[in-house]
TrEMBL record:
Pfam families: GLMA_2nd (PF22369), Glyco_hydro_35 (PF01301). One of its GO terms (molecular function) is hydrolase activity, hydrolyzing O-glycosyl compounds. GO terms for biological process: carbohydrate metabolic process. Belongs to the glycosyl hydrolase 35 family. Residues 35-143 form the Glycoside hydrolase 35 catalytic domain. SUPFAM superfamilies: (Trans)glycosidases. CDD domains: A4_beta-galactosidase_middle_domain. This is Beta-galactosidase. Residues 1-22 are annotated as: Disordered. Coiled coil: none annotated.
Length: 721
């Protein structure tokens, strides 16, 4: 039996791993929206295949079918739950030949398939125990706790399970047993010796879908880490007392908030700190697992993580932040993506999530991209939905993906390849045609054109998350009772806390107003949030975000530097006078007061104020009803040329190859249930336009082209000047 090692004995910092990789001539780098192997930009179009769920004599034929659909890689879950016989003992094929991971990897390599490994420890995969051995879930020391001190539970099919605490050291000691067993196998297949080119750290870590701030994790180890987080943030208990307005003797006296009961602005920091800690909890636990993987030899390939898709009232608006912190997690991992399971009617959801990943991640990747569906999915789509959602993700700039599930198995329906190797023609055609077009367009080398960046405001999202008034466990079936695990206007406080408006509620209205106005006006834009590094802002000609009485000090400084260097920032409804701790901070306000101002008029009345700050402009929209009109004026002087479209519901994106002038790939979407006769222009003359998918004739005009769109249709055009 293997003896578990303490994680601390095996720790290796990310910086050391990066340095070692830098010395190699055969590096794999995920960055700048490209996946490079040995300096060459490569495709990462993968499909999920679970060797342990398939008969071994079917492996070869199934992998051949995967190749025949144009896939260049496979993505593989490797479940601790399946391989462990008893604590510290594992079967990798000596007992059950389906579990021979080494043989499966070797077979995939022999067929020229690259490999993306997903060894957990949590994998979900519709397994009853989420990939953990049952003993892990059954151990009270390893269970996360709710605010009342009971077990945090995930209500899922086929049965509820306890949530595991990633704050407990013992959990990492147990995981070390699994990693000690599997990492030597994976490291032998690591590029350049083998086909393994990337690995996922854990899976959809979101407190086991207990997104609600007061549902998890209140176990003693987590509270201890929360207090350490506060000490690191404030430096001393005296510093915390100043912000909290308390008289704690030490950090040991501070408890996490168990429910929201704030009545005044001075109460808020204690709640918002808990939300920020929950973000850090996820980041620190993923870093700890990643370092364990690197220390056990998996140190030559990029490591990534997948957040679960944020569906629902919070996810479809700007609630794509807390408890997720994509930029924070990419400080310790190579890239981070969101999973997408959607239907054609949810185009705006796909656009929002995809645009956010493209605007935020080093390498825009969908780790799980719908192919078939789990049996308990409500209102599942069909192959037409999968085709539409696939084109929508491409349209908004995704550069890599793994189709989940490419090969069918138990607890899954309608995959393109059956578990016996037979192919479903309609489903398979969606993916084979997609892969063919991606290769023909050399899509991996194209860059999404985006002149404007719309930022979700993390300060306000944290307040929204903190001010939720009801607490319930994570639940796969919440949509059946019209609830969402994400905070929203139905579940959050309506208190103003001394502000003019309840920021936690109206911030979504402003985000939506900016988003809808940009879409309607034909602006090319992406999404991110206020944690985006300052050096990435100059890529855009304008930056938009909501702004109320308070805004983080670092965010204010970042925006001011961007404006002074020549950028345009549009905010609404006001400039802040406080920082995120609600102390005085007039960085932006002082810059505006010292600058020359002018009115932005709409219908002969003042709708906004423009401040000439440095080489750029700071524009404040005073009323949400004027956002669309003000943007039309404020962005007109920035050199931005919007696309032209004759119907407000049409959506257009442009992709260009930096190495080729005068050519573009343009996506046009009709995301409605009605047909549209479209007239499109991209702000420049065109001489030739050809549709990529169906090769049907296109009517070219002096300023663009015309085409007919059936309901829920996305077309792709190759356009030449």
């Amino acid at each position: 039996m293997l003896v578990p090692r303490r994680y601390d004995d095996r720790e290796r910092s990310q910086e050391d791993a990066v340095t070692k990789n830098a010395r190699s001539d055969e590096r794999i780098v995920a960055g700048d929206h490209q996946f490079r192997i040995g300096g060459k930009v490569e495709e990462l179009y993968a499909g999920a295949v679970h060797y342990w769920r398939l008969e071994r004599d079917k492996w070869s034929d199934i992998l051949d079918k995967v190749r025949s659909l144009g896939f260049t890689a496979i993505s593989i879950y490797m479940p601790w739950e399946i391989h462990e016989i008893e604590r510290g003992k594992f079967d990798f094929g000596s007992i059950d030949p389906r579990k021979d991971l080494d043989a499966f990897l070797t077979l995939a390599e022999s067929k020229g398939l690259k490999i993306v490994a997903r060894p957990g420890p949590q994998i979900n995969s519709e397994l009853t125990w989420f990939g953990y051995p049952l003993r892990i879930l059954a151990d009270p020391e390893l269970q996360a706790q709710n605010a009342q001190g009971g077990r945090t539970v995930l209500t899922q099919v086929p049965r509820p399970i306890p949530a595991v605490s990633y704050a407990v050291d013992k959990f990492f000691d147990e995981t070390a047993l699994w990693y000690d067993a599997i990492m030597p196998i994976l490291s032998r297949h690591q590029y350049p010796a083998g086909g393994l080119i990337s690995a996922q750290v854990d899976n959809e870590m979101a407190f086991f879908f207990n997104i609600n701030a007061y549902a998890s994790d209140f176990c003693p180890a987590s509270i201890k880490r929360f207090r350490a987080f506060l000490e690191g943030k404030y430096g001393s208990i005296a510093g915390l007392n100043v912000v909290y307005g308390k008289k704690y003797a030490s950090f040991a006296d501070v408890d996490a908030p168990r429910s929201f009961s704030a009545t005044a602005r001075t109460d808020l920091p204690a709640y918002v700190d808990w939300i920020e800690y929950r973000e850090r909890y996820l980041i620190d636990s993923m870093k700890r697992l990643a370092d364990m993987m690197r220390a056990r030899g998996l140190d030559r390939i990029p490591l990534f993580h997948n957040y679960p898709h944020p569906l629902g009232p919070g996810g479809a608006a700007s609630g794509i932040t807390a408890p997720y912190n994509l930029m924070g997690l990419e400080e310790v991992l190579d890239f981070v993506g969101f999973d997408i399971y959607s239907r054609k009617e949810l185009y705006e959801h796909v656009k929002t999530v995809t645009s956010y990943v493209v605007g935020s991640s080093r390498f825009p990747y969908i780790p799980e991209f719908i192919a078939g569906v789990w049996p308990w999915y409500l209102h599942p789509g069909d192959d037409k939905d999968e085709a539409f959602v696939t084109r929508a993700a491409m349209m908004h700039g995704i550069k890599g993906f793994s189709r989940y599930m490419l090969v069918e198995r138990d607890r899954w329906l309608a995959s393109p390849i059956r578990r016996d190797g037979r192919v479903r023609p309609e489903n398979a055609a969606v993916f084979s045609s997609t892969n063919k077009v991606l290769k023909e367009l050399d899509f991996k080398s194209l860059r999404r054109q985006a002149d404007v960046l719309l930022l979700a405001n993390r300060d306000y999202d944290r307040l929204e998350a903190a001010s939720v008034l009801i607490s319930y466990p994570g639940d796969f079936l919440e949509s059946q009772i019209s609830l969402s695990e994400y905070p929203n206007f139905m579940t959050t406080s309506e208190e103003t806390f001394g502000f003019e408006e309840p920021v936690q509620a109206v911030k979504n209205d402003w985000f939506a107003a900016f988003y809808e106005s940009l879409s309607k006006g034909g602006q090319t834009f992406l999404l991110s949030d206020t944690a985006l590094p300052a050096e990435r802002l100059p890529r855009y000609k304008a930056v938009l975000l909501s702004s109320f009485e308070f805004l983080g000090a670092a965010v204010q400084k970042k925006l001011l530097d961007y404006v002074e260097a020549g950028g345009t920032v549009v905010v609404g409804p006001k400039l802040p006078s406080l920082n995120e701790r609600f102390a005085s901070d007039t960085t932006l306000l002082d810059a505006a007061n010292a600058a020359k101002s002018s009115a932005v008029s709409v219908v002969n009345r003042k709708a906004a104020t423009r401040y000439a700050v440095g080489k750029g402009a700071l524009v404040v929209v005073h009323d949400i009803a004027d956002v669309e009109a003000v943007l039309g004026v404020a962005l007109a002087g920035t050199g931005i040329v919007p696309v032209r479209k004759n119907h407000p519901k049409l959506d257009v994106t442009i992709h260009r190859d930096p190495a080729v002038n005068g050519k573009a790939v343009v996506f046009v979407a009709n995301p409605t249930a009605q047909p549209i006769a479209a007239d499109i222009g991209i702000g420049a003359p065109v001489s030739k336009v050809s549709e990529v998918w169906d090769a049907k004739p296109v009517v070219v005009t002096e300023t663009g082209w015309k085409d007919d769109f059936a309901p829920y249709t996305i077309k792709t055009y190759f356009v030449e000047a």
